[in-house]
Each structure stands twice: as structure tokens, then as C-alpha cells.
Design a protein that fits this description.
homodimer; mainly alpha; Arc Repressor Mutant, subunit A; 6 helices; TR_Rrf2-type_CS (chains A, B); DNA-binding transcription factor activity (chains A, B); Rrf2 family protein (chains A, B); WH-like_DNA-bd_sf (chains A, B)
DNA sequence: TTAATTAGAGACAACAAGAGTCTTTGATAT
DNA sequence: ATATCAAAGACTCTTGTTGTCTCTAATTAA
């Protein structure tokens, strides 16, 4: 069990976008180049992020993408849900006797896990990256 | 993203086995019947649980399966790892600039999630199931 | 208004993994 | 010996992921 590659690409893209000045946009070509991906494939991922309201898109010349929300408000879980949908970790389709009981226990564990992901902010990664880069300059 | 059906079957099987008296064994046929599965398919799952040391198998007449460890020592994560292997939720294959940093952040989130699953004991579910059954008898 | 540039949408193919079956082998109690 | 059980592995089928290609729609600049 692992998250899809698309989710990883999305997480990385969010980091790139966050490191951009708030006003400027960046195109798919450039973002795809950074991750060694085809622009068409990455655009599918970006569209999902756009529909989830995490980033904004501008078509036309000088168009591109930028972060939509307040940077400090975007968590891992936001990005994961945007790409994978609101899936259940445990999909208990087996109903026998006390089936619901088992399902409930699994759902509880799932909830606790999601809280962890919701507390992990993308902006923290960006901050760490920038600190590391700053150290390098010194 | 979700755990495989096999993991769900394994979790359910563990519950069934735990509700058995410590000394007695149960065969694949009966376990498969409980979950409406084919015995051959379930046996593949049971073999994984055996290799992981969570259950014990006895071949031959009067053979079958039973819990191997102390019941209170088996967590969700034990079962999940037995079936899915020790997989990583986030598989960061994209290396660019501060790639390692992003990967580390993801790994940290992953660790926190796994702690949750490791704290969720199968025996708790069994206890709840038995309490529910006891109430029904009254 | 036209041309260039950008995102969006959807069809499509290739590949990988999951789910499940079948058959054969090997161990054990009676 | 024989019936009964688990173990192992080859095999198929289905599903989902990954990725490409093409066409459309919107926006800016000239």
C-alpha cells in the first residue's frame, strides 16, 4: 500500500509553487521540467489541484499556476485528497456477525492517521528547504 | 489509496482466530466459510500470516491454524506488514534539489501514522465483540 | 482582429498490481 | 496405507495507474 506517483508529483509541485513569489505564476512546461515529467501528464495533476482549490490557473499568454490559499493552510492531507479523492484506507466489504465492529475499529485508526497528515504542513517543508539553502550560502 | 482486500481478510481472520480457545485449531475450510472466500485463496493469506509468525500452522489430520503470539501483542500494523510487506506510504523517486528534504518530511508523517496502527490492537476488537455478544445474551 | 500561448478535457494505449483459481507436493494422525 | 490437512507455485482475469496524443477554450499582445 502506497500513495500513487501522482500524489508525490502533486506534493512536489506544491513545494515548488510555494517557493515562488506570491504574485508571479509559472507554466506547466517549467514545472514539468523541474520534475522530469511530460507537461501533458503533469497538467492532469495540476487540474486536480486547481479543482480542489489549492492552486489557481490562468489560461492564455502569461498564464500559468500559483498558490491559491494562504500557504500556512495547506496540509499533506489536502493534497492527498485532491489527487486520490476521499478514499478509505480500510474498505471493509466483508460482513459477518460483528462485521461492523471491525470496520469501526479500522475507521477509527484511519481517522487518527488522517489527523497526522492534516497536521503536516507543506509550508514546513518549504521553510526547512529555505533554511538549508540559506546555510549553504553562508 | 487503500489497503488491499487481502489485508482486510487477514484482519478478519485474526479476529476469528483470537476468539478461539488457545489450544484448539481451525482449518482453512471453516475460516473461508466464515468470510465467504475460496479456501485456496484464503490459504495464501494464511501462509503469509504464518511466515510472519502471527499464527501457527499444523499440517496433517487434525491440523489447522491458531494464534502464535500472546494475543495482546498483535497490532493492526503487524497484520498489515505481514500481508503488504514493509511498504512505504510515500515513495519519493523524484530527486531534484532539496528532494531528500521532501522525502524526509513524508517519511516522518508516515512514521506517525504507523504508530497509530501499532497502537491499535486486534485483541481490543475481540474484547468489544465479546462484550457486545454478552450484552445480547442478557 | 489575428496570432501566439496557455490551461482543460477526453480518448486511448501500455503496463503493473491485485484478486482469485487450479494443481501438485509434502506432512501428519489414525 | 490412506485420508486429511497446509504450502507452493503457475496461471488467468480484472482493475487501476501511468502516461501520451489531440482537440478545444480562454487570454494576452500586436
Amino acid at each position: 500500500m502506497k500513495y500513487s506517483n501522482a500524489t508525490n508529483y502533486a506534493l512536489h509541485t506544491m513545494v515548488h509553487l510555494m517557493r515562488l513569489p506570491q504574485t508571479s505564476t509559472i507554466g506547466v512546461q517549467e514545472l514539468a521540467e523541474m520534475q522530469k515529467l511530460s507537461p501533458t501528464y503533469l497538467s492532469k495533476i495540476l487540474t486536480k489541484l486547481t479543482k480542489a482549490g489549492l492552486i489557481e490557473s490562468m489560461t492564455g499568454v502569461k498564464g500559468g499556476y500559483k498558490i491559491a490559499r494562504l500557504k500556512s493552510r495547506i496540509s499533506f492531507l489536502d493534497v492527498i485528497n485532491a489527487i486520490e479523492g476521499d478514499t478509505h484506507l480500510f474498505d471493509c466489504s466483508i460482513h459477518h456477525g460483528e462485521g461492523c465492529l471491525i470496520e469501526n475499529a479500522m475507521r477509527q485508526a484511519e481517522e487518527n492517521m488522517k489527523v497526522e497528515l492534516d497536521n503536516t504542513l507543506i509550508s514546513d517543508i518549504v521553510a526547512m528547504a529555505e533554511t538549508a539553502q540559506h546555510r549553504k550560502r553562508i
